[in-house]
Amino acid sequence: xxxxxxxxxxxxxxxxxxxxxxIRLLQLSSLELEQEIQLQLDSNPxxxxxxxxxxxxxxxxxxxxxxxxxxxxxxxxxxxxxxxWDEVYTHQSTALATPEYEERExxxxxxxxxxxxxxxxxxxxxxxxxxxxVAHCIVNALDERxxxxxxxxxxxxxxQHVLRQADxxxxxxxxxxxxxxxxxxxxxxxxxxxxxxxxxxxxxxxxFSPQAALNHQAELKHQATLLLQNADxxxxxxxxxxxxxxxxxxxxxxxxxxxxxxxxxAPGAKFQAQEQDYQTPDVILQKKNQRWQVFLNPDVLPKLxxxxxxxxxxxxxxxxxxxxxxxxxxxxxxxFIKSIDERHKTLLKVATCIVEHQRDFFEIGAExxxxxxxxxxxxxxxxxxxxxxxxxxxxxxxxxxxxxxxxYFFSSHVGTATGGECSSTAIRAMIKKLIxxxxxxxxxxxxxxxxxxxxxxxxxxxxxVAKYRESLNIPSSSDRKVxx
Length: 484
Prior knowledge:
Blueprint: H1 17-26, H2 30-43, E1 47-49, H3 56-61, H4 64-74, H5 114-122, H6 129-140, H7 152-165, H8 174-185, H9 197-206, H10 215-229, H11 231-235, H12 239-246, H13 250-261, H14 269-272, E2 283-288, E3 291-296, E4 304-306, H15 308-311, H16 321-357, H17 359-364, H18 374-381, H19 385-392, E5 396-399, E6 402-405, E7 413-415, E8 421-423, H20 424-436, H21 446-455, H22 462-471, H23 477-480
Parallel strand pairs: 2-5
Antiparallel strand pairs: 1-4, 2-3, 5-6, 7-8
């Protein structure tokens, strides 16, 4: 084997630090971007955030004598200073127009959790110390619906363990746990700590107090009790057997079921929904003069610039460590501002392209969704698919129809009779609309829905309809059937 030295010309792609930073910023959400900006502000003295008070009026209020003195003490007159404004970048908004944006105050108030709400009521009861320990064990075992998610024997063992740790020589009985459970089930919300749906409805029905003068309500309560005694037939929707077994006619059955439906099947759910996660939109869509306009949310637009005071301290011919440090920080600050600006330009470009494709969605709703994939947008905006994927992940657009993630507008498709394509999102909306308008006594089967869609020119199989229906959390036709 002979060794030789030669030259070879080849093309290679390398990611510069600036490009790596731009790619990383592109995939950050608005919250993550805010954290990244704050981190850069804390670490780079030449990068500053433009506050509202940095206006012309503020500049006029500045003492010129003090400012001149600071500059004179810091920069000698005999040294050339690089203070050209082309070296200082001030971020300019890439929005199409300044929106008429109404700022709203966050007036959400913190609410007690289900556990706190129940323990507050338990402290008002005249319970012994041991009964309070049992009550705490029961409350700690409740799930998000407010149901008791364990057996009474487990509550007994847990309470007995707490007593041993407290050096209390007391043996609990299962009946004592059951008594405390009944106390809790009659607290607010009524029916909490029930072990199943039937027990939850039974507790609420027991506390239902009809007026003495209205015998009809007392009879209605009795009829609802008969239904709960035959809960297996009620839950399977076998109404014919239910009427034969309870000796109730159709009207009586309808009224008794209406009473049961008025109760809360999940007493603890409302406490879980008190605090919700709110997403801040990155892009806002509005219709003005019969035209859809897309612009960036001004609340998430970072207003950054290079600090002119520190920029003025940089000396062109000075090779000292301090001067080199300022130059490096200047370069990093300018690259960071450019990366932020490119991020917003790319986001606005992709969002505008999506709006152009999905114009019918914003006009008529989900039924107007068009089939769209990443490649379609990538080819139109002349970006790579991976870039479009990054810019649409965890980015939200606020529209007149609601708040959507940009990923929502990409969907698969099925063929139509005319050779075209229909979005799966539009098909789901059509299925939901057909089921909402069906006769509840004769609900549409998956085959019937498939035939109706085929009449509309959409070639879809029964199993596809079943898959889309299940994704909408819609039960089958047999479970949707209502005889009343």
